[in-house]
Amino acid sequence: MATATPTAAGFQDCRNAWVKTLEDLAEADPRIVAVVNDSVGSSKLGSFQKKFPDRLINVGIAEQVMVGVGAGLANGGRIPFVSAASCFITGRALEQVKADIAYAGFNVKLVGQSSGIAYGELGATHHSIEDFAWLRPLTNLTVIVPADAWETAEAVKWAAAHEGPVYLRLSRMPVPDLEIPNRSFRPGRAEVVCPGDDLTIIACGTTVHLAAAAADNLKAEGVAARVLNFSTLNPLDEDALHAAAETGAIVTVEEASVRGGLGGAVAEFTAANRPVPVERLGFPGFLPTGSTEWLFQEYGLSPEGIAAAAQRALARKE
Amino acid sequence: MLTNDKVPLIREKALWMRRTAFTMVHRAQLGHPGGDFSAMDILATLYFGVLNFDPKRPDWPDRDRFVMSKGHATGALYSALCAAGYFPTDWLATYMQPKSLLNGHPNRNYLPGVETNTGPLGHGFPVATGIAIAGQLSGASYRTFVLTGDGEQQEGSNWEAAMVAGHRKLANLTLIIDRNRLQQGAGTEETSGLDPLDEKYRAFGWEVFEVDGHDPAALLALLSAAPGKKPRCVIANTVKGKGVSFMENVAAWHHGVPNDAEYAQAMQELQ
User: Fold this and answer.
1) pTM above 0.90, yes or no
2) Where do runs of H (alpha helix) occur along chain B?
3) Looking at residue B270, what is its pLDDT?
4) CB distance B120–A72 less than 8 Å?
5) DSSP code for B149
6) Cβ atoms of B120 and B158 closer than 8 Å
7) CA distances (Å), A37 to each of A89, A100, A180, B77, B80, in order?
């Protein structure tokens, strides 16, 4: 089983890449500050705080003012990275994210930590599987879901240099680095993880390496599956979706609700432009308690589950 | 200029702003004139006696910031920004028209002088707190003023901001509460009581002052005083609909709009 465990060889916690990159950027650019809701530890910002004590603004357990303060800091010329568990920075402060960041257009970087079902056993209050659906309609908010440590570092660098609101959805679930030669981070563009024309598997975040493993399994069965790392959800890479539809069948895989997230976006796009069978893998709604690894297996977010969904999609292909 | 010398100008501007706002609301048949009029003398005092700003450079980094947290009172905000020179008077006639830059609630991306987008209550104060933190971090000279309604204080996000600002001793931040004692349908104290507001803010680490929100001289003295060591809360006692006899203290004028006869009478009174 290729599902991540903290001890698996070659698997990395992307939060290390996030904080190392942020510290390097903050060293060079005094405008960069971090804002947290008491989440110094879970955001791995302990060493940032030691290096830049004045530039770590902890507002306490108060997400509405945390996001509002981010907007105000941007008004005052700073580049704030506002970091908190995804379930709280999006759900608890959703109206602040909408009105103060996205609609007002402030240069604020929202960083969702421990996204998806990282807090498996803690239950649905602490799962963040609705965030894609909540944020996708905020059209001027760039939404990026890095798939590995390399992409996490690149996304943090890009966000700091980009003038405008960004949501970075990070995970605490260890993942391997994707094996793709000559990579360059291109926001808004899907990345081809492996080529293929029989169908397209579209994944993001922690599920991309699982989709790549599923494509290996399918190859043994004579199926050439294209795998896309769809790391930008806002704006959608429509060219990649047109090309995916040309393969005649699509599987989407996300550590999120199947309603309104990546699967929802792909289904909307194909239904409107070129209807093809779309099998959506993800979560149906509130989840039972269980470890992250168990929940991934249970809901088919595994090489075997993704390969099975691919066969279902192929069977529906005209 | 001695501060009291500014009072006649503030009174003159406040009168122009009331006439202008009511004309906008009458033309659009939309708006929130009751809350516009309770806030009008506060805005006139800020823009014509207190704030350090340059309408030709709305993004000047050292400008004093004014955040209109009660974003529905755009009759007051837009007439103030126009009087202050941020945009020409002919824009006012577009208020709430299709694609107007003068939305029902202010948008910083369209309109110079707007510091942040407000409208949903309880947003401006947290953003103003962030602006003040940015100033504190860099030792900037600018000050930040934020105006909330009194009913707006029922939103919990304000109390998160009050706690943060008190904890960080944001002496460069002044909160003004437009204490007209009415929310859209009823009195604040019969809805979800706010009193004692002064004790609440003192308990959160603020310096608290009470003032007649329609007395420019008193407002001017208080708001232009040098910062102390704590954030300041100014409870401005006001009258909803102040300046027009049939509107004063009538909750229905929260978003009531005048017919032609009411408009004519108001213009008679606002001389």
Assistant:
1) yes
2) 7-28, 33-45, 74-83, 124-138, 156-167, 188-192, 197-203, 216-223, 260-269
3) 97
4) no
5) E
6) no
7) 9, 17, 36, 32, 36
| Total tally of structural domains belonging to chain B | 1
Which residue in B119, B134, B157 is closest to A72 by CB distance? B134
Chain A partners within 8 Å of B138 (Cβ)? 76-77
Q: Are strands A109-113 and A166-169 parallel, antiparallel or unpaired?
A: parallel
Phi, psi of A64 (to 5 degrees): -65, -50
Question: Which strand (E) or helix (H) includes residue B124?
Answer: helix B124-138
Nearest CA in chain A to B64: A76
What pLDDT, in 10s, does the model give residues A51-109? 999 999 999 999 999 999 999 999 999 999 999 999 999 999 999 999 999 999 999 99
**Closest residue of B to A35, CA-based?**
B130
Q: A10: pLDDT confidence band, cut at 50, 70 and 90?
A: confident
The first and second tokens of residue A260, run together, are: 């309104």
In this structure, what CATH number is given to the domain that contains residue B204? 3.40.50.970
What pLDDT, on the 0 to 100 scale, is given for residue A1? 38
Owning domain of residue B199: 3-269
Cα separation of A80 and A75, whole Å? 10
**With contact defined as beta carbons under 8 Å apart, do B254 and B184 qualify?**
yes
**Chain B: residue nearest A102 by CA?**
B117
A-B CB pairs within 8 A amount to 106
Substitution target in A65, A73, A163 with the highest count of B β-carbons within 10 Å is: A65
Facing B160 at nearest CB: one of A64, A77, A99: A64
CATH homologous superfamily, domain A11-176: Thiamin diphosphate (ThDP)-binding fold, Pyr/PP domains (3.40.50.970)
Domain spans in chain A, listed from the N-terminal domain onward: 11-176, 191-316
Residue A7: pLDDT band by 50, 70, 90 thresholds?
very low
What mean pLDDT do residues B62-67 have? 98
**Any chain B CB within 8 A of the CB of A72?**
yes
Distances (CA, A) of B11 to A198, B8, B77, B103: 76, 5, 16, 27
Q: For B117, which residue in chain A has the nearest alpha carbon?
A: A104
d(CA B10, CA B244): 18
Note the CATH number of domain A191-316: 3.40.50.920
Overall average pLDDT of the B86-93 stretch: 97
User: Does A65 sit within 8 Å of B129, measured CB to CB?
Assistant: yes
Alpha-carbon span A130 to A229, nearest angstrom: 20
